[in-house]
Amino acid sequence: MSNGGNGGPEPKALPIPADWDDVTPAWMTVALASRHPGTEVGEVRLVLRDDGNNRRARFGVTYSAGTGPATVFCKAEGLGEHRVLHRNNGDAHIGNTYVLPDGEVGFLDWQVARRGGWSQDVGYFLVGSLTVTDRREHEADLVAEYLGALEVPGERRPSPEAGWLSYRASAAYGLAVWLSTLGTDGWQRRDVSLALAERYGAAFVELETEAALDRLNP
């Protein structure tokens, strides 16, 4: 690695922490060295963490030498088998779909597009698009079909058990979105919002979504 020809020491390689607990003062010192040379971190305190699709955390930092930011945000890169990341629509309900003359289906409305876990869009679309009866009958087969079609290396493909767990957890997102929409005026007709809130509510209960979230975020 080049040091820019200034004769100084080579910068230390920065390992990727396996978990938030591995963000130590020594690690943070190396992470900040390029912008705050000579600074030594004395303490790192985890202030807030988000272990959902975005996997990020906010740390409070104090220094034993030099100065630097009091708050540092970190974004996780390591993925567990539950977290195969995709470019998500973020609002993949059936009203945002279109069908071309050749039968190809796509999504409209990408204003809340994001990078996130596959299950957010898949679960949101399946639960909202199917009647409660049809979802109960077909959801397991549809999730299995989707996982089998994922274009990812074999070692990155979620296992059937991990995929099903992520799908179970996804109902929380749709329930929150449509309860919020139901409580506002003008975004969607009330009967549409109510029908979708009922579908996500039924899925939340039947799929034991709260328990699935607890398993994903112990």
The biggest beta sheet is recorded as: 3 strands, antiparallel
Tertiary shape: elongated
Helix-strand makeup class = alpha+beta
Strand order of the largest sheet: 1-2-3
Overall average pLDDT: 84
Gyration radius (Cα, Å) is 22 Å
The ordered string of helix (H) and strand (E) elements is HEEEEEEEHHHHH
Question: How far from one another are the termini?
Answer: 39 Å
Low-confidence stretches: 1-11
Query: What's the total count of β strands?
Result: 7
How many helices? The count is 6
Helix content range? 25-40%
Strand content: 15-25%
Compose a concise summary of this entry.
39% of the residues lie in helices and 18% in strands. By secondary structure, the chain is α+β, with helices and mostly antiparallel strands.
Give structural notes.
The protein has helices spanning 25-32, 118-129, 132-149, 160-182, 190-206, 209-216, and strands spanning 40-50, 56-65, 71-75, 85-88, 97-99, 105-107, 114-117. The protein is of the alpha+beta class and 218 residues long. The strands form three sheets. The protein has a three-stranded antiparallel β-sheet. Strand 2 (56-65) and strand 3 form a beta hairpin. Helix 2 (118-129) crosses helix 4, helix 3 packs across helix 4 (160-182) and helix 4 packs across helix 6. It is elongated. It starts with 24 loop residues before the first helix and ends with a helix. Residues 1-11 have low confidence and may be disordered.
